[in-house]
UniProtKB/TrEMBL annotation:
Protein name per the record: Superoxide dismutase copper/zinc binding domain-containing protein
One Gene Ontology term from the biological process aspect of the record: superoxide metabolic process
Biased composition (Pro residues): 156-175
Positions of region (Disordered): 148-177
Top-level taxonomic group: Eukaryota
An annotated Gene Ontology molecular function: metal ion binding
Species of provenance: Pseudo-nitzschia australis
């Protein structure tokens, strides 16, 4: 199921109503995924220019405020006031910590344009997002853009984000997004009993110059995990502190038969100083050992231009102590 929203300047917020706007498409209960996850792709303009989030790890102090540079689904049903917009939308009975806390755009260009991309586990089903506000925040955390999510008939091919501003003869066309999909089913390593199913996708951007070309997103779930885990990395607990603890990662290898053929975490170390997979994984498990996961990761590889770079890689789920527990190969979805 897909929902979409045209986001506009929130009433009473200073700014240009014609230049401060955007579009987002939300994909929920993604086909073949077992997770209560939601992913979003979109675009915004009229933001503060030349923003660089601290999450990029470059030493910037921007976006550190609560909700700074945030992009979130909210619990309300109107964009008119902050009270009607509500807070971040998730089921607190199912999810131990706010999954939207670090969902944000990472940078803007010199004109204040940004690409929006991310995933979160909310504990809610697809129908629960309908008519909810999608809100984009300023670097200081205040709310800037808002639009209500509504049904879309094209869940994997979002419509154009913005109308053309120039003649088709002089413009490459309006910004738009799409995605290339993959799946991964993992089997237990060394009789661990842990299996998983995951949908992965590579965002495809058109006419959004600032859009990242190296992102891989995924939503999935695993069974047979240690029960009642609460990760220190977003789950509000103290578990998973060992290296790769509770990790869910794409690995560089193309064979699950041994740790050597599985390889290490898949990213371009020539382009990235820090391992982007280090803190990626499931954040909690149920009493039955079920865990869900959703994330978007910058890999340093131009997968948008060559999605085949992802095909055939090993997808691995780790135990809370960091050991490898389940492996499967990624394949392009039919």
């Amino acid at each position: 199921m897909a929902l979409k929203a045209d986001t506009v300047l929130i009433p009473g917020v200073e700014g240009s109503t014609t230049d401060t706007l955007g579009y987002v498409e939300v994909m929920a209960n993604i086909e073949k995924s077992v997770a209560d996850g939601v992913c979003y792709m979109g675009y915004a303009k009229g933001l503060e220019p030349n923003v660089e989030s601290f999450l990029l790890g470059t030493g910037s102090e921007q976006c550190k405020a609560a909700n700074g540079c945030g992009a979130h689904i909210h619990s309300g049903t109107s964009c008119e006031t902050s009270a009607l917009q509500g807070g971040h939308y998730y089921d607190s009975a199912e999810v131990s910590a706010d999954p939207w806390a670090y969902e944000s755009y990472l940078k803007t260009d010199s004109s204040g344009e940004a690409a929006l991309i991310g995933c979160a586990i909310t504990g809610s089903g697809a129908a629960d997002y309908d008519s909810r506000p999608f809100i984009v925040h300023k670097p200081d955390g205040s709310r800037l853009l808002c639009g209500l999510l509504e049904g879309s008939s094209k869940p994997t091919s979002p419509p154009s984000l913005l109308p053309p501003t120039k003649s088709p003869t002089t413009s490459p066309g309006p910004p738009s997004t799409d995605a290339v999909y993959f799946t991964a089913a993992t089997a237990a390593i060394d009789n661990s009993g842990i299996t998983s199913n995951t949908v992965l996708f590579i965002p495809q951007w058109e006419n959004i110059d600032i859009a990242p070309k190296d992102v891989v997103c995924f939503v999935g779930g695993a069974s047979g995990l240690d029960p009642n885990v609460l990760s220190a990395n977003g789950g509000g607990g103290t578990d998973c502190t060992d290296p790769n603890g509770c990790g869910v990662h794409v690995h560089s290898g193309t064979d699950c038969s041994s740790s050597t053929t599985q390889g290490g975490h898949w990213y371009n170390s020539a382009a990235m100083d820090v391992d982007p997979w280090a803190l990626i994984g499931y954040e909690q498990t149920s009493a039955a050992g079920l865990g869900q996961f959703a994330s978007c990761v910058h890999t340093g590889f131009n997968v948008a231009s060559d999605p085949g770079l992802l095909d055939g890689r090993a997808f691995i789920v780790h135990r809370k102590d960091g050991s490898r527990a389940s492996c499967g190969l990624i394949s392009k979805a039919p």
